[in-house]
Amino acid sequence: MSTADVVLALLSRGPAHGYDLKRGHDTWFDQGRPLAFGQVYATLARLERDGLAAVAHTETGGGPERTVYEITPSGRARLAAWIDEPAEPAAPGADELIRKTVAALRLGLDPAGFVARQRAAHLRRMRALEQAPATDPTSRLVVEHAVAHLDADLRWLEVAAGYVAADGVAAPVRLLDHVAADDHADVDADDHADESAADHSDDHSDDRSRA
Amino acid sequence: MTRSPGARSAAAVVARSVGGDPAERRRRRLLGASLTCCAAFLLAAVAVATFDLTGPECLRTPAGSTVCLAGNGGYSVSSPPGVSEPIDDFTFGGRLVPDTSGLAPYVGESGLRPGVVVAALLLVVPFAVFALQVVRLGSAARERRLAALRLQGATSADLRRIAAAEVRGTGLVAGVAGLPAYLGLWLLLGVLPPSGWRLLPTPGLTLALAWPVVAVVVVAAAVLAARRAADVGTADALGLSRRRARPLSRSSATVTGIALGVLLLGLVLYVLAPNGAAAGVVVLVLPLVFVAAAVAAGPWIVVAVGRRHIRRGSPVAVLAGRRLVADPRTPGRVAGVLLAVGLAVGFAVSDVIGIFLSGRTDPYDLAFFGGGILTALGAIGLAAVVAALSLVVGAAEQVLDARRPTAALVALGAEPATVVRVVRTQLRSVSVLPAVGGAVVGATLLGGWFAVAEGGGRAWVVPAAIGAVVVAVLVAGGAAALGAAGAQRLLRRPLAEAMSVESLRTA
Amino acid sequence: MTPQSTPGDLPGTPPADHLAAADRVPAGAVLEAHGVQHAYRRTVALRGVDLRVEAGEVVAVTGPSGCGKSTLLHAAAGLLVPQAGTVTLLGRDLARLTEDERALLRRREVGIVLQFGQLVPELTAVDNVALPLLLDGHPADGARRLALDWLQRCGAEDVAATMPSDMSGGEAQRVAVARALVTGPSVVFADEPTGSLDTLAGRQVLGLLVAAVRERGASLVIVTHDNTVAARSDREVRLVDGAVAAEAVLR
Question: What CATH number should be reported for the domain whose range is A2-84?
Answer without folding.
Answer: 1.10.10.10
